[in-house]
Structures are given as C-alpha cells and as structure tokens.
C-alpha cells in the first residue's frame, strides 16, 4: 500500500509565535510539508490574502460547511469560527505528503480523536509577560481583544498535557530546530520510513 503522509499539528496561545515559527520552518531547505489553509469568519488583517493566509468566508458559508461535513474540525475562538477543510487534508495525506495544521487547542483535540497517529506539538511562551509583549508588539489587535486572548491563553496552556510534545518558543531558530527534530523522530517512530532506514543501516545486504 502506498505510504500515507504524517499529520503534524501545531497549537499554542495567540501571539506565542506559531505563524513566525511555521514560516521559518517552511523556509528551510528540503522541507516537504503541505500547509493546510484554514477557513475563518474573522476579517482579514492588513496584508492577509484570501486563499493564502485563510479562506475568509461569511458565518453562513462556514455553518453550511459544518452541516455538510466539510470540516475535519472547527472551533469558535474569541467570537469567530476557524476550521480545517477535510477533503484537502485527506487527499494530501493519501498522496503521501505530510500535512501541517496550525490550529487552536479545541480543534486539535477533535483532530486527535479522528486521526490518532498525528503528531501533536504545543508551542508555549517563556512566560506570560513575554506573550503579552508579543501580542502588543504585533499590533494587530485592540487592547480588549489582546486581554481576551491572554485570558484564553491560560486555559490553552492547561491543555498542553494532552499534546505529545511541548516546545518553548524562546528564540525562533531554537523552536524551529526542536520541531524539525520531533518530526524526524516521529517519522522513524511511526514506522513509515523503517524500510528505508533498515536499508540505510545495511539490512538488505545481510
Ligand atoms: N480550530 C482551529 N483553530 C484555528 C484554525 N486556524 C487558525 N486557528 C487558530 O485560531 C486562533 C486565532 O487565529 P488568528 O485570528 O489568525 O490569530 P493569531 O493566530 O494570533 O495570528 C489561533 O490560535 C489559530 O491557531 C483552524 O482551522 N481550526
Ligand atoms: N521567539 C520569538 N521571540 C520574539 N518575538 C517573537 C518570537 N516568535 C514570534 N515573535 C513575535 O511575536 C509576535 C506574534 O507572533 P505570531 O507568529 O504572529 O504568533 P501566533 O501565530 O502564535 O499568533 C510577532 O510580532 C512575532 O514577530
């Protein structure tokens, strides 16, 4: 049977640096992950492009997708819907490519119940003040929204124990290296490259 890709799920509180780390990871030479573009009812931020950063849709369209089974998972996060289109993820995994999801914790746990052999990684800040500084520094949300997101962050960090790995985002380069190492290890653990690995070790010649 053709080998199926590995699903990698990255979560963490808003402002911890998920997008920054993911972009740096994708910029690395030789990476072969496919990024799943989420659907959301949130308004685009300046510079965000429909179909690249998110599929920006109305609440009605999102609810239609939910009702017709179009979402792998979805969650309401601070007044907006966010979700992962199911078909693209399945097709891409079936084609043997690894899929990378960057989603909040409730959605990640829904994915876990449907795709148990995914790799679940939680990106966490060095401390809460630093998290707040990053959100303020990014300058894309009002102070009210930032405070809501910080409140949500405590609940999210409590969910960290349901993940396979926790990675502290102190420096972007460090976090990228840690995530790359996790993915390398997981590729071996889930057996998908075991025949290649054994061959590399010389088993074929025994
Ligand atoms: N469950 C779920 N969460 C998502 C999805 N896409 C994005 N999110 C999460 O929704 C939260 C808010 O995203 P966003 O408004 O873009 O803010 P940002 O992550 O702080 O830049 C973040 O925790 C995202 O990781 C998705 O498809 N499903
Ligand atoms: N390791 C880091 N050290 C300092 N600042 C960071 C780090 N990682 C991300 N940032 C900054 O923090 C802000 C939030 O990062 P972002 O990637 O948008 O977070 P998220 O996608 O988790 O909401 C951005 O301004 C980004 O440049």
TrEMBL record:
Principal place of residence: cytoplasm
Broad EC category: transferase
Any single Gene Ontology cellular-component annotation: cytosol
InterPro entries assigned: GK/Ca_channel_bsu, Guanylate_kin-like_dom, Guanylate_kinase, Guanylate_kinase_CS, P-loop_NTPase
Catalytic activity: GMP + ATP = GDP + ADP
Keywords for the protein's UniProt record, in alphabetical order: ATP-binding, Cytoplasm, Kinase, Nucleotide-binding, Transferase
Compartment annotation: Cytoplasm
GO molecular function: ATP binding; GMP kinase activity
Spans traversing the lipid bilayer: none
EC number in record: 2.7.4.8
Binding site for ATP: 12-19
Domain Guanylate kinase-like: 5-184
Matching HAMAP family: Guanylate_kinase (MF_00328)
Function: Essential for recycling GMP and indirectly, cGMP.
Family classification: Belongs to the guanylate kinase family.
Protein name: Guanylate kinase
């Amino acid at each position: 049977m053709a080998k199926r890709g590995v699903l990698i799920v990255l979560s963490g509180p808003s402002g911890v640096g998920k997008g920054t780390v993911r972009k740096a990871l994708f910029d690395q030479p030789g990476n072969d992950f496919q990024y799943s573009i989420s659907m959301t009812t949130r308004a685009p931020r300046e510079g965000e492009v429909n179909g690249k950063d998110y599929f920006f849709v109305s609440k009605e369209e999102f609810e239609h997708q939910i009702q017709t089974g179009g979402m792998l998972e979805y969650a309401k996060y601070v007044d907006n819907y966010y979700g992962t289109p199911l078909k693209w993820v399945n097709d891409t995994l079936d084609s043997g490519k690894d899929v990378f999801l960057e989603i909040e914790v409730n959605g990640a746990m829904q994915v876990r119940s449907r795709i148990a052999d995914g790799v679940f990684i939680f990106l966490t800040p060095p401390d809460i003040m630093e998290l707040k500084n990053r959100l303020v520094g990014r300058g894309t949300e009002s102070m009210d929204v930032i405070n809501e997101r910080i409140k949500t962050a405590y609940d999210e960090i409590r969910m960290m124990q349901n993940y396979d790995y926790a990675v502290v985002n102190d420096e972007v380069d460090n976090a990228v290296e840690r995530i790359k190492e996790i993915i390398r290890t997981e590729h071996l653990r889930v057996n998908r490259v075991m025949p290649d690995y054994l061959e590399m070790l010389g088993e074929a010649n025994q």
